[in-house]
Specification:
Elements lengths: L3 E6 L11 H9 L4 E7 L5 H12 L5 E6 L2 H15 L6 E5 L1 H5 L6 H19 L8 E4 L3 E5 L3 H12 L3 E6 L13 E2 L4 E2 H14 L3 E5 L1 E9 L2 E8 L14 H5 L3 E3 L8 E3 L1 E3 L9 E3 L29 H5 L16 E7 L1 E4 L4 E2 L15 E3 H8 L20 E8 L14 H15 L4 E6 L9 H10 L3 E4 L2 E6 L5 E7 L4 E7 L1 E6 L1 E2 L4 H8 L26 E3 L9 H21 L1 E4 L4 E3 L10 H4 L5 E6 L2 E6 L9 H5 L5 E3 L4 H12 L1
Parallel strand pairs: 1-2, 1-3, 3-4, 6-7, 6-18, 7-10, 18-29, 20-27, 21-22, 21-27, 22-23
Antiparallel strand pairs: 5-30, 8-9, 11-12, 12-17, 13-14, 15-16, 19-28, 24-25, 25-26, 31-34, 32-33
Helix pairs in contact: 1-5, 2-3, 5-17, 6-7, 6-14, 10-11, 11-12
Length: 669
């Protein structure tokens, strides 16, 4: 007969403020199989855990039920107490009488107490039938993958590399750097963005433990924590990067032009181009989508011979390249190439995009003088399309009145209800930098609220007011296009309780930060979830901010939610530290709460195989017939196969039939 110990927690007043804890404890004492029933103010405290350990050592209990808060956060603590007391830690069940009871029935103490008794009875019914389970371990591949080469990905990769682990850094663009490389300066110190980022990019590019896989994307991921098999597709650059010196001669001679993504479409680049001047690696790419195939010569064909010179007629980019890195005669595979790598952990740092201004018809998005804040960054940058001069895109003239509009798509029921966190500060930064350079320029800034919670941020905002920048609290209702591409701003000033109308030469929209649509495919590949704001969902907002629901995969930077550069770097280093833990340990634990096929009962019908969300089940021959086999390294114990099996041949350890039926019987008694 089982000897179950029941321990009821007050949880301060979280539980005891609603539920009669003594009544629940006394009720537990009357249940079959219960040997001990106790209570404590905080069962998770040292004294509470010691109570459990001592009862185990004294031989009073051989199964444990704790009636307290959520097992999501506290189950490991109590399992640890069982192990310390000398009992198998899986002989434990938790009754959540806080989240599922006292918090949701705060207005009905009597009903909440009755429910607590039912939850305890159910937990005892299962606990009495629990069986000892043993953990297994698998070795770890001591290498890591970082997806995304922005500031978050770079710092995560560097931290892992400095710890001695081989690290693959995958970036979809031809160079690492991300959005931070596009910025002019960073708030609140006004540091030159390129000056502080470029050395870190170079360090990552030169680190012996980092392998840069730029112009590449993750195609497929299989496996589990400690042993991920990853396929990375390197897009075809149509340039031999082993030979390319990054001189840029091909770009100078290329006749084909297309909007430059790095300059946010404010200027053109060539079809043969280098991503930006400080690119790492500094290698050329030929964009075949915009290449004119000069001379009508297709890829993979030999050049024609000139009748005059007797020499091959080469394309301008081929002819210009002093390193012979561009050769259109080669049979280039347009789909690029696949590289397979094995890693133990993965850090996802895929960053963000800003909303397209086309979503906001009331803001005259087709007008050239309505730009996004990221376009403004390129306009005022020394490496931007105007060399840092503030010129209107429509006529290259200096504006006289400049308008900033905040929360375009953020804090908006029609688009995104969340705050993008950095918009207020980068608008203030841009306004201050412009005002310093052009003191006579009239600048208006329209905010719902100014949010400046970071270190020295409020002082930075106050400084903007002292510079004579007009800061108005209230929304902009829309923009009217006037002759000459000027704009009339229609707004409201909440402080003056009056409408505001004025003409502006240039309007900057602080559009919301959001996940790029392409990350949805990556989420499916990695088994990641999305939060309510459509960013990647962390395991727990407070206790697991860099972990995900998929073990071994971690989050860093703005893919997890909007944040500024200091917070991004902090989280990147935290994600790297978390990703390094299993690599340092050298092996990972396989939880025993997984499914197991009872081969003699299996009919080989295969119903379970396509249902498994983790691809953990396959059919294999057994006694000349197919039988289901479960890969324990892949199984996550979800129980889908157990529920679906028509032969009742699959057992989910920790949730076996007699245990579940005992719970149900206790609830319906």
């Amino acid at each position: 007969m089982a000897k179950v110990g029941v321990y009821v927690c007050h949880c301060g007043s979280n539980i005891a403020g609603v539920i009669d804890v003594e009544a629940v404890r006394a009720f537990a004492e009357t249940l079959p199989d219960v040997a001990v029933a106790r209570k404590d103010l905080f069962m998770c405290s040292d004294s509470g855990q010691e109570m459990i350990k001592q009862d185990i050592r004294d031989g009073l209990v051989d199964k444990v039920v704790v009636a307290a808060c959520t097992p999501r956060t506290h189950e490991p603590i109590f399992r640890g107490a069982l192990s310390a007391g000398g009992l198998n830690k899986y002989l434990f069940e938790m009754a959540n009488i806080r989240d599922q009871d006292s918090w949701v029935h705060a207005q009905d103490p009597e009903g909440a107490t009755r429910k607590a008794k039912m939850l305890v009875a159910s937990a005892v019914g299962k606990a009495a039938r629990l069986k000892p389970l043993e953990e297994k371990y698998v070795d770890v591949t001591k290498a890591a993958l970082v997806i995304g080469g922005g500031v978050a990905g770079i710092f995560s990769a560097l931290e892992l590399a400095k710890m001695g682990f081989k690290t693959y850094l995958v970036e979809k663009e031809p160079s690492i750097g991300g959005v931070m490389a596009m910025l002019d300066k960073t708030f609140p110190t006004n540091d030159c963005s390129a000056c502080i980022l470029t050395p870190v990019m170079v360090e990552a590019g030169n680190h012996p433990n980092i392998e840069l896989l730029t112009y590449s994307e993750v195609e497929d991921v299989e496996g589990y924590i400690g042993n991920f098999n990853v396929k990375v597709r390197r897009k075809q650059a149509f340039v031999d990067w082993a030979k390319c010196t990054g001189c840029g001669a091909c770009a100078e001679k290329c006749p084909s032009k297309t909007p430059d993504e790095f300059n946010m479409g404010l200027s053109n680049r060539r079809a043969a181009y280098i991503h930006f001047p400080q690119a790492v690696p500094k290698k050329a790419v030929v964009d075949m989508a915009h290449c004119k195939s000069c001379g009508g010569r297709e890829l993979g064909t030999e050049p024609k011979i000139s009748e005059k010179t007797g020499k091959p007629i080469l394309a301008p980019c081929e002819k210009a390249c002093p390193a012979d890195a561009i050769n259109r005669s080669l049979q280039w595979d347009p789909d690029g190439e696949i590289k397979e790598i094995q890693v133990g952990t993965i850090v996802v740092a895929t960053g963000f995009q800003v909303m397209d201004k086309g979503w906001f018809k009331e803001m005259a998005p087709d007008n050239k003088n309505v730009i996004t804040a990221l376009q403004m960054e390129r306009l005022i940058s020394a490496t931007g399309p105007t060399g840092g001069k503030l010129l209107r895109p429509s006529d290259n003239e200096k504006p006289h009145t400049l308008t900033f509009v905040s929360c375009v798509g953020s804090r908006d029921e029609k688009h995104h209800t969340y705050c993008s966190r950095v918009c207020c500060m980068y608008m203030i930064k841009q306004a201050r930098l412009i005002k310093e350079k052009y003191p006579d320029l009239n600048i208006y800034m329209h905010f719902i609220d100014v949010r400046s919670p970071g270190k020295d941020y409020d002082e930075y905002y106050t400084g903007a007011r002292k510079m004579g920048i007009n800061i108005l609290r209230g929304k902009v209702g829309g923009l009217e296009v006037l002759p000459g591409d000027n704009l009339r701003v229609l707004a409201y000033d909440l402080d003056a309780c009056a409408p505001v109308e004025y003409e502006s030469d240039l309007v900057v929209l602080a559009t919301a930060m959001e996940l790029p649509p392409a990350t949805k495919k990556l989420a499916q590949t990695l088994g990641l979830q999305f939060c309510g704001s459509n960013f990647f969902k962390e395991l727990h907002p407070k206790l697991g901010p860099v972990e995900t629901s998929t073990e071994g995969i971690f989050l860093a930077g703005c893919c997890q939610g909007p944040k500024d550069i200091p917070d991004t770097v902090s989280q990147a280093k935290g994600a790297a530290a978390a990703a390094a833990v299993p690599l340092c340990q050298g092996r990972v634990k396989i939880e025993p709460i997984i499914s197991e096929v009872q081969t003699e009962k299996c009919s080989g019908c295969g119903i379970c195989v396509p249902l498994c969300p983790y691809n953990a089940i396959s059919l294999k021959p057994y006694a000349e017939k197919p039988r289901a086999v479960i890969d324990i390294t892949q199984c996550k114990g979800c129980g889908v196969c157990t529920a679906a099996c028509p032969s009742a041949a699959i057992v989910l350890h920790g949730y076996e039939e007699d245990q579940i039926f005992a719970q149900i019987a206790a609830l319906t008694a």
